[in-house]
Structure formats: C-alpha cells, structure tokens
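Could you join me in thinking about how sequence relates to backbone shape in a protein? To get us started, please write out a protein record for me. Would you write everything just below, so we can both look at the same thing?
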Amino acid sequence: MTAPHNSPYSSVNQKFQYAELNNHTIALSHGAAAIADAAWSGPRIRNVPGTNSTGSDEWSNLFIAKNANFDTAGLSHDEYLSLFNLAVHNLAVQEYIDFTNAADPSSMDFRKFDRFFESPGLEHRSGEKGGQPTTVFHALRSWVGNGTAPDTLPVEFSGGNGTPYIRNLCPYPAQAKYIGGDVSSANSYRCE
C-alpha cells in the first residue's frame, strides 16, 4: 500500500491489495487511518499548553521528569520537543537501556524466570468473554520477592446468564480440565 498524498482519512473504506497477505484485499478502516496519521505526523503535544488536563502523562512525569506532579499541559511546543528528545536520545539509551533493549541475544536468564498463562477469550479489556486474572500483581510480587512461582492464576468471569465463574489459568502448555463438581468453581478443574 502506498501512502495517500493527503490525509490517510481520505482513503477510509478504500480497498487495497496486500502482496504480503497473498494479495488479499482489505478496506482501510478509520482506526487504521488514525494509526497511519499518528505515525506519519510524529509526536504531538497531548494537551494544548496552558489548558487543564483531565489525564496525566505518566511516562513524562515518572520516567523523564521523575516528578509525579510534573505538568505537561503547561509546556510550550518547544519545551515538549526538548522533553521528548531528552527521553528518546538520552534516557532511553543511557538510563533505561537495561530493561528496554535486548542487547544480549541469549534469553537463558529470562527462560529461568518465565511462565506463560493463556486466558482463552480474554480480549484487551476486562468484562469480555474470557476470564480476567485477579491476582497477577500479587503472584508476581510473591515470585520476585519470595521466589514462589505461581502454579495457577485465578480468573473470574460471568457466564451468558450472569453467573459468576472462577477458574484457574494453568502455565502453558497445561490446560484446565474439568474433573467434576460445580462448573462455576475453580476446585472442579485441574491443570493437566
């Protein structure tokens, strides 16, 4: 697909053929146009300088300015660009390189500390069809702090009729198998 000469929004609903997808034809959605517009436009000030902000810019506040009360809404365009350049060129390379870059291609240390839990049906937000993990942070804290790796992660979700269900996610490749009892109870399943 070639970039449109104007705004990507002018190509919404137009169909494009992708060689990478076996010449499959796909219509450009409004969301894809928004992503293209953001990528082509580069960084922008999230809020108009001098206006009240209803949200916060945690990355700028906590990682760049190291001040939870830092106000990005009060920045001029030039101040914002300086802050952005500081983050990209200095902090990203010097201060945060250890956890943002994979400089060592060996993943053996990570493999000693990884565990994958699939949550079937969980979409990108809670309240969907799949189970929302409820104790992930607690499990991670116990694992890092005490060396206690989680055997399961509990999830909660509602059935089609509103019945609450509790299950346990199993570490991959194991799956929860029904062993009998109340189908809404985690005790009725075992990781196999």
